[in-house]
Amino acid sequence: MQSSTPEAWYELAEHLYKLTVSEIDRAMETDVDLPMIYPKLIICYQFFRQIRGEGFHTERPDGMGEWQKQIYAWEDDLWNRIVKLRNKLNPEDNKTNSYINEMKNVFNLK
């Protein structure tokens, strides 16, 4: 059963987009925290994709068509920003590897 209006869903996507952009911007400014923040930003991006339309099918309202183009543009923008962050990471850095491995362990299926 859908409990949101298209307007409310759009506002949710917009708010999530802005929150994620603010975290990405902070990470770009403070390289020290980048190895820790980067994996978490990937999760934020994936959650945004769920809101955008890959998930929550029973909650996502019909009638998103007029806003969908903007939401896809936000998704593309988030990905481009994340790629810039990824390019700043040093894959040989122990701290980077530690946080990446921590996230791999979280997703390790047994």
The structure class reads mainly alpha
Low-confidence stretches: none
Q: What is the general shape?
A: elongated
- SSE succession: HHHH
User: Biggest sheet, open or closed, and with what strands and sense?
Assistant: none
- State the helix count: 4
Radius of gyration: 16 Å
The helical percent reads over 70%
Q: Which features does this protein show?
A:
mainly alpha; 110 residues; single chain
Helix/strand layout:
Elements: H1 6-29, H2 34-54, H3 65-88, H4 94-106
Helix pairs in contact: 1-2, 1-3, 2-3, 2-4
Describe this protein's structure.
It contains four helices and no strands. It is elongated, with a radius of gyration of 16 Å. Helix 1 (6-29) packs parallel to helix 3 (65-88). The longest helix is centred in the first third of the chain and has 24 residues, at 6-29. 75% of the residues lie in helices and 0% in strands. With 110 residues, the chain is an all-alpha fold.
Brief sketch in words of this structure:
It contains four helices and no strands. The protein has 110 residues and is mainly alpha-helical.
